[in-house]
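Take a look at the protein record below with the fold in mind.
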Amino acid sequence: MTTTSAETIIRPARARTAAAGATVRRRQGFQHGGWFVAPFLALFALFVIWPLLRGLYLSFTDANISGDGASFVGLDNYREALQDPLMWDAFGHSAYFTLLVVPCITVLAFLLAMLAHHIERGKWLWRLCFFMPFLLPSTVAANLWQWLFNPGTGMVNHVFGLDTPWLTDKSYALLAVVITTLWWTVGFSFLLYLAALQGIPAHLYEAAKLDGANAWHRTLHITLPMLRNITGLVVALQILASLQVFDQAVVMQDFGPGPEESTRTFVQYTLEQGFTSYRVGYASAISIFFFVLIAAVALARMWLLRNREEGGR
């Protein structure tokens, strides 16, 4: 047998042996690693998968809060939801809130991050001040700004010389919630931008300076393109969070829907249907509708990110 013939026989055998060994190692790794993942999977199934499946089932029934006497009603709850003007009003408030908050918080977080990144003296203090409000519980932030917006004793009207009924006029009530949310949550997006700015190579700016680029050109042609992925992440996270606005709107209006129901959000309306009107089946149906909307936003973000990464290759 020649050497070439022997290699022809040995090489496929070695390849099969290596593939078999890799398969065994993967199985062993899964068996050992599975024990570490199992607690998380159990909790995920208990607190996410099971409530989702239970809510999906209840959405096809006329179940009440007691859970007795529920009967199957098919798609009746979904048909009612599509024709419910109060639900669409609540959804409109959440959507309008999102349209106001997302652009403002994205721009504000970027500007604050640029300031904290380039400032020389007291850098740690600026970073602490910008991020600290995010550490407050939502109820604390909402109660604080409820006092600040108080038309009689609040500092907002006193400092700016206004006489605006922030919390009692439908034209300003939702705007007050927007301002509160910006102050309270901008720290999270600020931190993401700040971390991304620190990761931009310094030699890019040095090379641009040697080419005569001023600060505006460096920001436009280096900083913003390098922060494109972070900006997409910030926008996606803020959309998901803003659509689910509830705490600050409810607390600032003393757990009510606001003047002429102007601050009633989608989540608040869902809870009212489930725990005030005791219509658990209908509340489950509109919750599933909202879940589909949130999932669509998340999937759209993933699709855009994947296409962007593939286009950059």
The first helix runs from residue 3 to 58. The mean pLDDT is 86. The CA atoms of residues 30 and 220 lie 47 Å apart.
